[in-house]
Amino acid sequence: DGPVLALVGATGAVGTTMIDIIDSRESVPWGEIRLIASARSAGKVLRVRGEDVTVLELKPEVFDGVDVAMFDVPDEVSAEWAPIAAERGAVAVDNSGAFRMDPDVPLVVPEVNADKVTDRPKGIIANPNCTTLSMMAAMGALHREFDLQSLVVASYQAASGAGQPGIDQLYAEIAALAGRRVGIVSGDIATVLADAGVAVGSEAGSPFPAPLALNVVPWAGSLKEDGWASEELKVRNESRKILGIPELKVSATCVRVPVVTTHALSIHATFGRDVSVDAARKVLGEQPTIVVKDDPAAGEWPTPADTVGGEPTVVGRIRQALDFPNTLELFVCGDNLRKGAALNTYEVAETVAAAG
Ligand code: 2RA
Question: Which residues form the Semialdehyde dehydrogenase NAD-binding domain (predicted)?
Fold first, then answer.
């Protein structure tokens, strides 16, 4: 009774958030929930919806009888195992980067393109990168109404986008700098951190190329051609694919900020049809997964601190650009571990189950 759901990577940062999300649902459609992880974590017992579930080791036979398998694991693990799950009859919903741009794999945000879940020749559905995902519900709603033509985006990305090592690094830096009046003289933040034994820079083992505490770092991901960062190209390519606008003009600058969780994006969006701030607010306000928080006179706008831990995307600072017709400026915040990762993956899994 009820389809079987598997969660691969159950003990990782996103996997743990996933269990939280499953626990917080009023009801779930699943007859069984199977937890799967590497040999190192197999045998652990985790509680899911009030029941003890023993974590199984990742092996081909654990997918037998599984209807939907969610993958929250590194790219290379997904690349190997999502096809195995699909061969065994499961629909794999993958949160890694392994399949996002594969033309035979739909890239799904249910609020935007839920219909694509049944169009899956490889038996695999991909979940977008958290940076793109944090703005997709909002941009999808605005595109449907006003015909999106171009996007210029600056991201303010949280440390947890780099996983648990990113969170640990930021806390270690904050602890080492606490109470110190640093950041006044060039180089003193890095020196204080290094003296305290905290890694500074990628070569020393930090997930970030420069100190993150009391700083902002205009870099996320790996170096691609012509000076672009991989995260910036993902924003461009994934937005085009999800919105179904292959020629959409997109330019992004991705910046890491000293926030633990919740990515923010400043968006300059130009539309083909007439748009106004009021009309945009109405469209966004009608989306069940979006909260509009936009009253500067009352000091109301989205911030990561207010957004973290919640499910909705929060949108504010909506303005008509003064010198650009039919162009809106917006500020969007989304919890990168929830809507940016676990929640969207789970919503896709439920959409697959509902579609039979
Ligand atoms: C980051 N978007 O924030 C990435 C994680 N996939 O680092």
Answer: 4-120
